[in-house]
Amino acid sequence: MRRFITLIALAFLLFAFFTPTAAAQEDNLADEKMFAMVPMIHLDFKNFFLYQNDRDFDRGKALYDENKQTVGYFATTLTPALTWNPIEEVTLQYTVQIGENLWSRNDAEQRNPAAADVPTFLHKEIWSSVRLPGDLFVQAGYKHVNDPTRLFLDRDIGAVTLGWMWDADAQWVRLSFGQIPDGVFENTTAELPASEFEQNNFENDVFVYAAESRLLAGSWSLNPAVFGLTDKSEIGREMNLLTSAFNAAGPAGPVALSFDIAGQWGLHRNGGIDNRDVDMAGYAAQVSARMMMQHFGWRLNLLGFSADDGDKNDLLDTGFTYSGFSRSSTVVLSENELQDQYDNLDERVAAQRAGLFLADLRLSAMPVPSLEFFVSGGYGRVLETKNLDDDATVGTEINGGVVWSMYHDIVDMTVLGGGVLPGKSGAMVKNEIDPEATDSIYYGQALMGVHF
What is the residue-averaged pLDDT of the chain? Predict the structure, then answer.
């Protein structure tokens, strides 16, 4: 009997030892839940090729620099992004861009991190988001900030956002505050204040603040916003600019539509003749339409933003402050969708406060779902020629090419060729030597991309 009782007691102890309690079971479930929320990795990889017969619209040989006629390079860019939810209410985001590394310039075996040819690394996004009670959330760090039209602001900056989401997070309102890197005061003073914390203050910075919302009306998305900009980087010449922006996007039968409109008002203190204040007022509008059928598709875009008349005595600047981003399919008249060249004609025209109208159309034929042949054309003209030439034409651009997508669109290969026939206004904002030369530019581009 004693032996039987001993065996029962031993069995109970073993059972208790190897069987977790209810609290331990809950802890194990929590641990499993934590372990299940592993980081998600997104990757965008690009190998890009470009050949262009000239860098401007002047084919005359520059005798002092004969090797700077053509443009040509191979470049590799890898952009991995890590998104991690350690718990359901917290999101951590990190995105780094490795490149754009040019094969002829960046040396993978370079050991000196300060060398000019060291491979480049850009930490694009470093932010966290916390879900608060009552469907509120707060997000802070380096992140991509843009107005709903993306015509005024479209870049990565440090910012903090407080918002409220509802309707399964499909609709929201939010308030944001951020700082745009200053290239005037911070980077030109003798003691390099960016390297010393105690040298920094809020006296000469560039601030941005915004109130935004995303609302749904049936299948349409409505995105109103107000963005403010305070630029104190030039001592004694503070600029305050208010931008009201609105985007509406949705279907109209088989056609996907998008409408953008923005208005700007502001004051540039001591920005005019005799250090007088300058009033600022500008506008921009954009209409995009797209339709994709089984074997045919098209995309149309119309963009316009206001110009200044160039008269400094009127103390009114009516040019639109433009981000450089549009929905245009052109690659020289506007940002190249394959690889931004950071030197597009629309940006140069905006810097001259000359205003712009840009229209383009892209036609696609798809004999099979994975293969697209396309042609596109665009035409741009300035709205104010006083600071340029009496010919308002910026240029006419024609492109053609093929896109081959495979493995459920994870891989895409694009080859295109095209050219730009410039007008005199386009030549004057682009040419380095002879501002009146209007020789055409032609180019070829290729891209291999991997996205998952």
Answer: 88
